[in-house]
Amino acid sequence: MTQRHPTEQRYTMTDVPENSQPVQMLDFARQFAGIRKEILEAIENVCDSQRFILGPQVESFEKAAARACGVPHGVGCASGTDALWLAMAAANIGPGDAVITTPFSFFATVSAILRCGAQPLLADIDPATFNLSADAVEGVLRTHTRSKVKAVMPVHLYGQCADWDAFTALKQRHGLLLIEDAAQAFGATWDGIYAGALGDLAAFSFYPTKNLSAFGDAGLLTTPLAEFDDHARVLRAHGMRQRYYHEEVGWNSRLDSLQAAILEVKLRYLPEWNQQRRDHAARYDELFRVAGLVASSTAEGIVLPITDPRAGHVFHQYVIRAPGRDALRQYLTERKIGSEIYYPVPLHLQTSLASLGYKAGDFPASEAAAVEVLALPMYPELRDDEQQTVVDAIASFYK
């Protein structure tokens, strides 16, 4: 269901002046050009080894990624979606259990809960950070049998960790598991602790658009607990600990050696790349302020991303709230400037999730975000002049 923002009618398309240069939402080629030799050497080593599934490169990457997150255990798998499922299945979440999460996220956040046979319960977001609100989760816990709710799964949306102080307090009060959907947040921190080391389990995606990206699908589960690590390893290989002896019904979710080798090369550069993203975000902030476009609400102008002072944001996306968002996006597209909407339809309004029993109006903060958010070009190799072009175009639209 698409909702219309009350200010949408104020903005209509005008004549589009010729753009001085196109600006892509993301340019994979620039990153590859800088590390091409290392990547091709890593691929060649895998080809020479003829070890393509769960080979030594996978073990090496798992250890390196776990170290980067500050946890003892990392389990590579086939995708970020599988990592979410593995995290819950490793903790024996299944039929009869419920998991509380956000309606303002990618579809996999909820579909992975359903895949476990558990019940997704939704709670609204903090409108400032777009992350799951711990207060809203507390409200859900008051209205459901607490023994049924086994876990809370906050999403570190756009690269900023959820308020982990508040969720830790929830865990202590209610005895819940905390599972991080950290798909967009490799390298992000909360109070100096890395995403992936905050909860009982965490799930990462290495989809090609992510900060740490594979050349295809790939994922990772991290955990401080050996029993979850062991269970996840059995589950990802059809429930086998010993070949052809199946302890339980698992799944085929093995990370291949090519992706692991590529990811380990990129992991060495990730701190630098994440800092470049933060620098770009700060430059966007300044350019928008100089252009006089910044306001505290979309009734008056653009609302910039807010970073909690306890969070180390990695800006997987740079997301503004924009009045007349859809018209603005069309205007940018006409000028060959990339943008994206993450996400135009909250999960509780998705047709395929109607059986969850929610309706329009149940999560007003998520629904408001869905009609206002716009992600602008953001990647480490983005140039200053390209950012200026983006902001100039937006200023032209509102003028």
Automatic annotation (TrEMBL):
Entry's PANTHER family?
3-OXO-GLUCOSE-6-PHOSPHATE:GLUTAMATE AMINOTRANSFERASE (PTHR30244:SF36), TRANSAMINASE (PTHR30244)
Task: Provide the GO biological process annotations.
Answer: polysaccharide biosynthetic process
Family, per the entry? Answer: Belongs to the DegT/DnrJ/EryC1 family.
- The yes or no answer to whether the keyword Transmembrane is present is no
Q: Which GO terms describe its molecular function?
A: pyridoxal phosphate binding; transaminase activity
Q: Which residues form the active site?
A: K210
Name the UniProt record assigns to this protein: dTDP-4-amino-4,6-dideoxygalactose transaminase
Q: Spell out the Pfam families in the cross-references.
A: DegT_DnrJ_EryC1 (PF01041)
For this UniProt record, the keywords arranged alphabetically read as follows: Pyridoxal phosphate
- Modified sites of kind N6-(pyridoxal phosphate)lysine: K210
